[in-house]
Design a protein that fits this description.
Strand content: 25-35%
Largest sheet: 3 strands, mixed
Helix content: 25-40%
Mean pLDDT: 93
CATH class of the largest domain: Alpha Beta
Number of domains: 2
CATH topology of the largest domain: hypothetical protein PF0899 fold
Low-confidence stretches: none
Strand order of the largest sheet: 2-1-6
Number of helices: 2
Distance between the termini: 30 Å
Number of strands: 6
Order of helices and strands: HEHEEEEE
Shape: elongated
Length: about 120
């Protein structure tokens, strides 16, 4: 389960940011995760609880924004959101997609903290 190592890295990054801001507690972490990132949301939520035990993040919430696949259609000249991951074709003209614009992200969007001297 690679989700645990991912969450350990997220917790480590959040702790570092919180400590730099002299936070007394982290209340929330928000992630942006593309549907092609290769992680399972429920596993991430479970692993977050495990990885935060005994840290400034213990008891905080993990919010996950799931991002759809967006491709650039060379024929239409537009960014198009795919309805699923079964077919990488433009949903309008059915041309095979050659350029992925969104869908593989796995990033920390924000960290909410208490007692900081400066915002994170």
């Amino acid at each position: 389960m690679h989700e645990l190592s991912i969450m350990q890295n997220v917790v480590e990054a959040a702790l570092e940011a919180a400590q730099e801001s002299h936070a007394i507690r982290v209340t929330s972490v928000k992630l942006r995760i593309g549907v092609l990132a290769g992680v399972v949301k429920d596993s991430l939520l479970f692993c977050y609880e495990v990885a935060t035990q005994g840290t400034l993040l213990e008891g905080s919430s993990l919010r996950i924004e799931e991002l759809p696949v967006i491709v650039d259609c060379a024929v239409c000249g537009m960014a198009r959101t795919l309805p699923g991951v079964q077919s990488f074709r433009c949903p309008v003209c059915r041309t095979p997609a050659t350029r992925l614009l969104q869908g593989r992200e796995l990033e920390i969007e924000s960290i909410e903290i208490e007692g900081a001297e400066t915002p994170v």
